[in-house]
Amino acid sequence: MIRSLVSGAALAAVTVFIPTAAHAQSVVEPNTVTATPFLSVSFGTSNDLGSSLGIGGAIGYDWTRHLGFEFEVGRVFDVVGDDDAIDWSLTNINANVIYHFNAPRVTPYAIGGLGWERSSVNADDEALILLSQESSTEVAWNIGGGVKVPVGERLVARADLRRFQVNDLAPDHWRLYGGLTFWIKR
């Protein structure tokens, strides 16, 4: 099941790379505010815990055609999804800096940020109760990149791949997401 989810997320990300014929300029406009809800899949966790689906959202401000800022909240449902006795969820809250590159038909970008990750472990089995004490809130940073593709006058498809690193107990992980960006203020 996890392989089919990862394959589906990869397919969705690849479709974002298919160019659209009508748009050849950057999707970034100075002094605009955007909102991006997204679906994600997290994988490559430290200690090979597993992969998981997630959701989230971001509010962004594009200061110039190249430089923007973003506040993001993301939730990973269960990084040990194969183990019914343990539920391990992650919640990330980040402030990010985003740099957009100029390219025809698509707008690739690099992104990095700093924030917090809340790691919550719940165990059903009494022998696993000790693991539930590993719940914590920690400093986390992320770095990655992605691409934005216009799909309408006020709508942009977005795919993003990032690495999240945490300072202590919570698992480090990769996150691949696909989302739709809407302009709130143009």
Supply database-style keywords:
Porin, mainly beta, 186 residues, eight-stranded antiparallel beta barrel, 8% helix, 1 helix
Strand order of the largest sheet: 1-2-3-4-5-6-7-8
Structural class: mainly beta
Cα gyration radius (Å): 17 Å
Indicate the CATH architecture.
Beta Barrel
Strand content: over 45%
Strand count: 8
Could you give a short account of the major beta sheet? 8 strands, antiparallel, barrel
What's the end-to-end separation, in Å?
41 Å
Shape: elongated
Quickly count the domains: 1
What is the H-and-E element order? HEEEEEEEE
**What quaternary form is this?**
single chain
Averaged pLDDT, please?
Answer: 83
Q: Runs with pLDDT <50, length 5+?
A: 15-24
Q: What is the level 1 CATH name?
A: Mainly Beta
Question: Helical amount among residues, as a percent range?
Answer: under 10%
Individual helix count: 1
Account of the 3D structure:
This protein is mostly beta strands and 186 residues long. The chain has a single domain, classed as Porin. Helix content is 8%, strand content 56%. It has one helix and eight strands. Strands 1-2-3-4-5-6-7-8 form an eight-stranded antiparallel barrel. Strand 1 (32-43) and strand 2 (52-62) form a beta hairpin. The longest helix has 15 residues, at 2-16. The N and C termini lie far apart (41 Å). Mean pLDDT is 83; it is low at 15-24.
